[in-house]
Amino acid sequence: MKFVDEFRDPQKARILLQEIQGLIKRIPICGERPIWIMEVCGGHTHTIFRSGLNNMLPKEVEFIHGPGCPVCVLPRGRVDDCVDLAEREEVIMTTFGDAMRVTGSRKSLLQAKAEGADVRMVYSPLDALQLARVNRDKEVVFFGLGFETTMPSTALTILQAKQEGIKNFSIFCNHITIIPTIKAILDSPDLHLDGFLGPGHVSMVIGMEPYAFIAEYYRKPITIAGFEPLDILQSVWMVLKQLAEGRCEVENQYTRIVPPYGNSQALQAIQEVFELREFFEWRGLGSIDHSGVRVREEFSTFDAEQKFPIPNLKIADPTSCQCGEVLKGVIKPSQCKVFGTACTPQNPLGALMVSTEGACAAYYNYGWIPEEDLHPARSSV
Amino acid sequence: MCLGIPGQIVEISNLEHKLAIVEVGGVRREVNIVCIVDEDHSPVSCVGDWVLVHVGFAMSRIDEQEAKRTIELLTEMGEVQTKLQAMRQSNTS
């Protein structure tokens, strides 16, 4: 899909694009520099490139691709710890497909599996729990990761394991939380943003209220967006309209899925099972205060970090990779030194190339215009 | 990971643990429905409902039209096959 005609409602898309042209002229900074809008969620990044939205919008509007791909922001040291766990004789390591290919400093879980470790790809933490039920002589560890969208599923699985008295099941918890992450982005001195597209499915769980500080304290507009190309186009229109009218509010474009107060059952499960860590390490971004959660003490028998010795090594990102600068929006994926050469979706070097939700993979698969096409003269020098 | 897949609840498989069988693109699997059950929606009343399923958990009730549109979107993105394959291949033995 690269044309407006292919949108679900092409007429509406055309009107929105037309109105956007008018709106940007009313935004004070327009003409001085691009209007920078961050889409926090990796699912949005994927849709933006897949639909060609980045090329349909006027050049004055630029997307900054946020850190919302949980696989991509996992630091190498955590992957190493996970591989270490997987290589234990008694352990069956379980994880989502996306997380199999992400490499640590030594190897990925996929490589560990090829070398004999018992690593199973599961669709759901419930399937990992089922593996624990039928393999009582083994320790089943679930590699839990994701923002608030998947956090309730891990929490509810732990609650179920506790209820059943299952002893051979634990979580290697790498869940991260969205609000401190957005705050760290807003506090970052080298990043200037004009507004946000809020993550649709995280917001389905947490609701709208947690974003209020973005509007009230940082004075930036945010619109929670759905995942269809038209949803994103409409959300961009809503952010630009706020900017043109000088408003900073939390708006909800995705009302058909996102209730204002989130999902109370899911929030309750998160609250019961998890607590904030003092800090959590991110690939490319370094340490962010309170950005990760861990399993609460009363569920420690389900916490792999309590159950097994974890090397807990800090491993620096590969020097050739510029994932951190891409994550912060300082450079575009194609401006990275190894983009499309040493680092491709087939052989990812950096984490942003691993998952289809990663900015680099999305760029590579859909959005990338080779440098020589853009600047024929420059590349021939 | 952040995208769910729509499915229709066809029966309640475990009332105590609030588990239901959901049909997703022709594949049936057990899904936890704790997050969509409340005072107004008993588990049994959920049969027939369309829901958005994230990694084995129904996270949101949706209407049939939204379900169809989301399936179209996911199909376009190549995500339906990926998710169904993940469900089928999920190794639980």
Q: What would CATH call the homologous superfamily of the largest domain in chain A?
A: HypD, alpha/beta domain 1
State the helicity of chain B in percent bands: 25-40%
User: What is the 3D form of chain B?
Assistant: globular
Q: What order do the helices and strands of chain B follow?
A: EEEEEHH
**Roughly what is the average pLDDT of chain A, rounded to an integer?**
90
* Assembly category: heterodimer
Topology of helices and strands:
The complex is a heterodimer of chains A (381) and B (93).
Chain A: H1 10-25, E1 35-41, H2 42-51, H3 53-56, E2 61-68, H4 76-86, E3 91-95, H5 97-100, H6 109-114, E4 119-121, H7 125-134, E5 139-146, H8 151-164, E6 169-175, H9 178-187, E7 195-198, H10 200-206, H11 212-216, E8 222-224, H12 229-245, E9 250-252, H13 264-273, E10 274-276, E11 279-282, E12 286-289, E13 293-295, H14 304-307, H15 323-327, H16 359-367, H17 371-374, H18 376-380
Parallel strand pairs in A: 1-2, 1-7, 3-4, 3-5, 5-6, 7-8, 8-9
Antiparallel strand pairs in A: 10-13, 11-12
Chain B: E1 5-14, E2 19-24, E3 27-32, E4 50-54, E5 57-62, H1 64-76, H2 79-89
Antiparallel strand pairs in B: 1-2, 1-4, 2-3, 4-5
Any overview of this molecule?
The complex is a heterodimer of chains A (381) and B (93). By secondary structure, chain A is an alpha/beta fold. Chain A folds into three domains: 118 residues, Rossmann fold (3-Layer(aba) Sandwich); 117 residues, HypD, alpha/beta domain 2 (Rossmann fold, 3-Layer(aba) Sandwich); 46 residues, no CATH class. Helices cover 40% and strands 16% of the residues of chain A. In chain A, strand 8, helix 12 and strand 9 form a beta-alpha-beta unit. In chain A, helix 1 runs parallel beside helix 12, helix 2 packs parallel to helix 16 and helix 8 packs across helix 13. Chain A is globular and about 65 Å long. The C terminus of chain A is likely disordered. By secondary structure, chain B is α+β, with helices and mostly antiparallel strands. Chain B contains two helices and five strands, in the order βββββαα. In chain B, strands 3-2-1-4-5 form a five-stranded antiparallel sheet. In chain B, a hairpin with a 2-residue loop joins strand 2 and strand 3. Chain B is globular. The model of chain B has no long low-confidence stretch (mean pLDDT 89). The interface between A and B is large, with 52 and 37 residues.
